[in-house]
Design a protein that fits this description.
Helix content is about 35%, strand content about 25%. The chain has one domain: Rossmann fold (3-Layer(aba) Sandwich). A 6-stranded mixed sheet has the order 6-7-8-3-9-10. The chain has a 4-stranded antiparallel sheet with strand order 2-1-4-5, covered by helices on one side. By secondary structure, the protein is an alpha/beta fold. The chain is globular and about 50 Å long. α4 packs across α5 and α5 packs parallel to α6. It binds adenosine-5'-triphosphate (ATP) and magnesium ion.
Length: about 260
């Protein structure tokens, strides 16, 4: 599988007055096309910080991040927006939709940032809403959409630049379980059927079975994979056997191809 994110030795220290907070402490991570990685861990363990650094929103204190083979940590500040716009789609917990714009206009706005305007923007926004199952909601205002629908508009918007990478920070936190599952299934389809790399931060144990891989963070570090030969009562020992059984990489690749054809 083709690697699209390569993070090596990433650290991030926030200066808080006199004190310093080490949010990330030597993180190595690879993410590939066609996979959905779940990033989990306790509050404050560094998940959002890592996501922001992989998304070129935040710079690491040290270490390197390559996006599609290009080391973005070496780029100048002014070059980063182009990487963000062209290669990365963000989905946040709070939807971040503009309340005075319709669903369609919210998506059009992202296209506008990418230089797509007028009738072409309208046509593409419609197609993106269709992709997330909201073809009928182009003219609906966010206030008249359910939480799950709003989150799907946010995903349509993240897809506006046709990004290779989708980074989602707790997109199901505000959703009931059915809408949450629909959103996760959609993200998973984007990975499997459309070859996107998806990194999903979640606390939500209901979505564990949808991931290809779980990366567990603790104190700014990635915790080594659990040794399943020892019967531990962690969530991993409950979930991982299912993952291995239900969704081998090969099976998932085949499943993705099936959807594509
Ligand atoms: N801008 C900032 N300034 C100072 N400290 C920060 C900043 N952002 C994050 N931190 C600190 O860095 C650590 C990691 O924060 P981060 O937001 O990455 O955690 P998280 O795993 O996403 O937590 P949560 O599950 O609560 O969202 C925390 O100790 C946090 O207080
Ligand atoms: Mg967070």
């Amino acid at each position: 599988m083709q690697r699209v994110i390569k993070a090596r030795g990433v650290t991030k220290t926030f200066e808080e007055g006199a004190a310093a907070v080490r949010a990330l402490d030597g993180v190595d991570l690879d993410v590939h096309r066609g996979e959905m990685v779940l990033l989990m861990g306790p509050s404050g363990s560094g998940k959002t910080t890592l996501l922001s650094i992989m998304g070129c929103i935040l710079r690491p204190t040290s270490g390197s991040v390559e996006i599609a083979g290009r080391e973005v940590t070496r780029l100048e500040e002014r070059e980063l927006p182009r990487v963000r716009l062209g290669q990365i789609g963000f989905v946040f917990q709070g939807f971040n939709l503009f309340p005075t714009l319709t669903a369609g206009e919210n998506v059009e706005l992202s296209l506008d940032l990418k230089g797509v305007r007028g009738g072409e923007a309208r046509r593409r926004a419609q197609a993106l809403l269709e992709q997330v199952g909201l073809a009928e909601k182009y003219d609906a205002y966010p206030a008249n959409l359910s939480g799950g629908q709003k989150q799907r508009v946010a995903i349509a918007r993240a897809l506006a630049g046709d990004p290779e990478i989708i980074l989602a920070d707790e997109p199901t936190a505000a959703l009931d379980s059915q809408s949450g599952r629909a959103v996760i299934a959609l993200l998973r389809e984007l990975a499997h059927a459309r070859g996107r790399a998806v990194v999903l931060v979640t606390h939500d144990s209901r979505v564990l079975e949808y991931g290809d891989r779980i990366v567990h963070m603790e104190d700014g570090k990635i915790r080594p994979p659990t040794d399943f030969s020892r019967a531990e009562s962690s969530v991993f020992s409950l979930v991982q056997p299912n993952l291995a059984q239900d969704c081998s990489m090969e099976e998932q690749a085949a499943w993705g191809k099936g959807l594509q054809s």
